[in-house]
Amino acid sequence: MPTIATMVPRAAFASVTGRLRQVVSVPLITSNRINMPEVAESVLARGDADLVSMARPMLADPEWVNKAREGREDEINTCIACNQACLDHTFGGYKQVSCLVNPRACNETLLNYGSTPARKRLAVVGAGPAGLAYATVAAQRGHAVTLFDSAAEIGGQFNLAKRIPGKEEFFETLRYYRRMIDVHGIELRLGTRVDAAALQAGGFDEVIVATGIAPRRPDIEGIGHPKVVSYIDVILGRQPVGQRVAIMGAGGIGFDVAELITHAGPSGATDIDVFAREWGIDFANHPRGGVTGVLPQVASSGRSVTLLQRKLEPVGKTLGRTTGWTHRATLARRGVRMVNGVEYLKVDDAGLHVRVFGEPQLLEVDTLIVCAGQLPLRTLYDDLVAAGVKATLVGGAFEASELDAKRAIDQASRLAAVV
Q: What's the confidence (pLDDT) of residue 283?
């Protein structure tokens, strides 16, 4: 069963410590998925433990305790339990531990956000992960920052992630950035699409281009067929999805889309009873260990879904070391078929024509969801360079392959630390 992934409800296993506390005389400490002050307080108030232990939340925000003590909980950079830069690094090749939402973690002597000796007027275009990270670090250091985005809300790709069942913690990341925009006096201009001429006329010392990505549209026959839709349109609910579905691409986004369209009912990350049923856990502890003989009860949308991958390696191999197995297990229980070694041939009224390890097949699907990579959006950057404006690319606009918030935030923070 998962115990540390973001799909696990907050303080999900504290009640186990609570029962143990009733029969022992020594102080007990509980841990796992306790990431905000109100969660820790509720554990103590219920009598589930004498103390709470937190590790990853201190990587996400080393000022966690001070902010909690001073009543500044809304300024806490919340651990989202993604594990991508901490536990995945620990168990995946012994990389240095850090944190997706705080790349300074374990880099404190190398990555400093000291006050700037020369204040600059900076324009950051794009309020996704990279743009938010750059804007907040630069403003924290004393620069005058104006943050533009054509959308009506900040977040970029985070606004897709937060809609996936089990990834609700991304709402906290957006809450943190909204608060930092206020704290550091960033001028926020949402619903504003700017061009090179407007930025040049704005008198900025430098423009940071964090315009993100566009989904890649593979060049196969029939890709314009009405049954072909983009993952963005599916996640945002802009396109209907049929009962027979193929997903082209089995990276992180492909798995997220499969989770979204096969899920039914409340999210287990926010409803502990749903989580327990999905993973076969009896928190009343009637069977041995709370799991012996308890079968998972799967709530599914009823769709028939096939997750397709061109590579020959096992489907889902590139997912996180500590969390990938949970995603594979969840989809397998919902009957999602995972196929590797796929060559895409064409789409027509009959469905998706493919070859699997050289054998022709027809997948009779109502909907084909394309999750086949991304392309960087660099038009604004090219226009700025042509106009002689000093510009810097960050995030997906810099590198779109294997779309990665960890890389985007790290790169943006490091650049903002030296501007």
A: 84
Residue 290 scores a pLDDT above 80: no
Please give the span between the terminal C-alpha atoms of the chain, in angstroms, as a whole number: 45
Contact 371, 392 (CB under 8 A): no
Domains of the chain from N-terminus onward: 112-216+374-419 (3.40.50.720), 217-264+300-372 (3.50.50.60)
* Residues above pLDDT 90, as percent of the chain: 92
The pTM for the full model equals 0.94
128-151 CB burial, b ≥16 within 10 A, e <16: bbbbbbbbbbbbbbbbbbbbbbee
At residue 288, does pLDDT exceed 80? Answer: no
Measured in degrees and rounded to the nearest 5, phi and psi for residue 200 equal -65, -40
347 DSSP β-pair partners:
352
The whole-angstrom separation of Cα 149 and Cα 134 is 14
Q: Helix 129-140 and helix 405-416: axis angle, to 10°?
A: 30
Q: Is 392 exposed, middle or buried (0-12, 13-18, 19+ CB in 10 A)?
A: buried
Cβ-contact 44, 52 below 8 angstroms = yes
| Tens of pLDDT, residues 66-121 | 999 999 999 999 999 999 999 999 987 778 999 999 999 999 999 999 999 999 99
The secondary structure of 62-95 as a DSSP string is TTHHHHHHTT-GGG--------TTTHHHHHSS-P
User: What is the model's pLDDT at position 291?
Assistant: 65
Nearest to 261, CA basis, from 279, 276, 247: 247
Q: How far is CA 137 from CA 66, 140, 159, 381, in A?
A: 20, 5, 21, 21
CB atoms within 10 A of CB 122: 23
